[in-house]
Amino acid sequence: MTGALDARVVALADGRQIARAGNVLEARLDHYFGLVQAAQHDAAYHQLRADRRLSSNEKKAIIAAVNMSYLFQRQLEWGNHGMRRSFRFWSDQQKSHYVERTLEIIELLRAEVTPHVSFGFGSVLGMIRDRDFIPHDDDMDLIIALPAQKGVTFSKVLDNLRQILLAHDFIAPESGNLSHLTTGRADCAGTDIFVGFIDPDQRVSW
Q1: DSSP letters along 99-124, please?
Q2: Alpha-carbon distance 163 to 148, whole Å?
Q3: pLDDT digits (tens, 9 = 90+) for 68-93
Q4: What does the pLDDT average to over 176-183?
Q5: Mean pLDDT across the stretch 125-145?
Q6: What residues contact residue 152 under an 8 Å CB cut-off, 6+ apart?
Q7: For residues 50 and 47, what is the distance between their CA atoms, to the nearest angstrom?
Q8: Which of 14, 36, 123, 165 could disulfide-pair with 170, CB 3.0 to 4.6 Å?
Q9: What is the pTM of this model?
Q10: What is the dihedral of CA 98, 190, 161, 102, to 10 degrees?
Q11: CA–CA dist 11, 104 (Å, integer)
Q12: How far apart are the first and last CA of the chain?
C-alpha cells in the first residue's frame, strides 16, 4: 500500500496525469497532498486528524507517503505538531544553539518560579536511548513542579509563567493548552513547559 501511495505522491508533485482515485484512501491522499502542496499545512493537519473516513493505519500511510516522497525533500516532516522542520534536518550547531536557549529558560524558571525544573518526555527519551534528539520531534520538553496549594490551578500557574517569560523577552503566545505552554526566543524554536503539582506524599500530579 505504501509503495503505491509514494508513487502517487511523486506523480502529483511532478504534475503528471494519474489514474483517477480508485478508492477512498487514494482520494483522500489526493486531497491532503493538494493542501500540502499549496502550503496549507495547518488545514491538512487538522482535517486529517478529524477525518472519520480513514482508519488510523490509513492516516499513517498518507502521512508516511507525503513525508517520504515530498516533505523530506523540503526538510519538513508531518509529525505530532503539524508540518515542521524536525530534528532530523538540524545541524549539530543548530541543536547546540537550541539547547543553550532552553538552558536560559531553565535558569529563569529556577530563579523565579521553582527549583524543581527538569527535561522531560521525548527530550529525555532521545538523550538516554540515542544520545541525540528524537529525529521526528521538533521541540524540547521541560517539566516544572510546584507545591499543591488551595486555589492554585494550572491556568493560574500558566498565566504567571507567561507574564514572567514575557518580562524577560521570551515569546509566550496564548493557547488552549491546559497543562503546558510554549516559549522561546524569536531566533529559535519553541520549548514546551509542562506544569505539575507536588502532592503531600511528594508525588507529582500532571
Answers
A1: HHHHHHHHHHHHHHT-S-EEE-THHH
A2: 21
A3: 999 999 999 999 999 999 999 999 99
A4: 90
A5: 94
A6: 146, 197
A7: 5
A8: 165
A9: 0.89
A10: -10
A11: 46
A12: 39
State which amino acid sits at residue 129.
R
Distance of alpha carbon 142 from alpha carbon 181, whole angstroms: 10
173: how many CB neighbours lie within 10 A of its CB? 10
Residue 179 gets which letter from DSSP? Answer: S
Lowest mean pLDDT among 89-93, 148-152, 190-194: 148-152
- CB-based contact 161:181 (threshold 8 Å): yes
Cα 42 from Cα 45, distance rounded (Å) = 5
Provide the strand spans (E) within the chain. 77-79, 82-84, 117-119, 140-147, 180-183, 191-198, 204-205
Is the pLDDT score of 98 beyond 80? yes
